[in-house]
Amino acid sequence: MLFTDFLEELGVRLEAGQRAFCRVAFDGVQVADLQGEDRGWAIKIFGDLPRIPDEEWAFVRAVICIVAGGRSGKTYLCSLRILYLALTLDLEGKLAPGEEAVAIILAPRLKEAQLSLKYIAGQARKNPDIKRLIVADTADQLVLRRPQDGQLVTITPQAAGAGGVSGRGKTLIAVLMDETCFFRDASSGVVNDDAIFDAAEPRVIEGGQTFVSSTPWVARGLLHRKWKENHGHPKTALSAHASTRNMRTNALQLRKVDNAYKKDPRNAAIEFGAEWGSTTVELFFTDAELDSLFDGSAPPLGTLPRPGSTVAAGGDLGFVRNSSSLAIVVQARGVVRLAHLEEHQPPKGQKLRPSVVCKGFAETLARYGCAGLVADQHERASLEEYLSDADLSAYDAPSSVDALVALRAAVREGRVKAPAPLEQTDEEAPADLPGRLREQLAGIRQKRTVGDGLAVVLPTALDGSHCDLAVAFAQAVWGLGAVGGAEVDEEKEEDLWEERHQREVAARERRLRARQERSW
Questions:
Q1: Which pLDDT value is given to residue 102?
Q2: Nearby residues of 381 by Cβ (< 8 Å), 6 or more positions away
Q3: Taking the complete model, does pTM exceed 0.70, yes or no?
Q4: What are the angstrom distances between the C-alpha of 224 and each of 209, 216, 218, 290, 477?
């Protein structure tokens, strides 16, 4: 029985791309021998492969490399392939007397590996002919006794982060390395995909298969190397490379993919387009994202919150070389606006006085109705003293990466707005803090790292500032979601947005006229 026939017996319905993938990778039909729709989909996934000699074809199919988009079905199909091999693989002469055959499922975390086992056990329980073969069925293993030879086969999940594969000394019929791009040893933090593959693959018997499968991340590591060496010209493995659209035709699923591209094209290209992420430094915020953030719809800085709105604050403290910055955000009607921003830079050759800065921050927080401030541990003692005197709290800040990711997600969803930068026309114009904030956000870079990592680079400006405004703003937005903010329950001093906005527009027009007059 072919694998695709086995799936039909189980009642599993394959979509067009999935069927073409299974016919080549699992049924062993060569791309050159396929006809019609199957051939078209197979070429998209494997490349237009020429016919390969049978012996060579069997060799490369022993290792299947799968670079595929999220929700493509790769884990589910590989899991059912393990069940098929457990039931049908010829074991005669391949096991010592009394030895059991084993299939191992590896994922970055045990819970993810157990999910794959659930796919297998669920189908085994559902089918009456397979259900009667079950000897043991737990979260840690599924044991089957095959009717044709009485042989026991154990399928077990393991965490790749637990130090590697415990398959040494065992005879393996299959190994699934699922989401390989995110393998990392839990104790050392070292990416361990090569170590696991080298330990497991040689122990897979003839006819069995090793699956190295993942949604891509960065263009490095075991899967990327295998893909590069074999895709379109298999030598040591058969390589499949498929976007979610090349594996799925389900209308609802494809609509979700389309929405992901609209929301975040860069991440969607990796997650669903199966494109390898760049390991080079790239922009953290795009120009389009910054245009959306600073679109001019937010009230001017200094506009106090109205009753019923929620406020939160973030701070970045530095008294010697870096600036001390404070950002306050206000949430009302589902939109978060930047309401207050201030920055204190140490004079050249001097340092800021913590008492003055922290006392000023506490007074500002109280004026806006904040309950406290999200800030890191740096200079925490000075801050907590003055916050405590004002009956305010200090909340532990996340890493800069987590805070900036939270800010970027809110910007992409259109939930956060900041005042537009000022048009500076002369030295007497007020400090353009929104413009300075945008400049800092535009300078932030990111770099993907192997093993599901993201490194963020915060550039240092000539004046010594280290994206302090950007970090304070990000921590305020993060705090609104993580800490919850404080609800404003009383009217603040009269400070209507409309009046302030009109005054700001008039000031801009005056500066513009002054610049035009000087240009003549």
A1: 97
A2: none
A3: yes
A4: 19, 8, 8, 33, 36
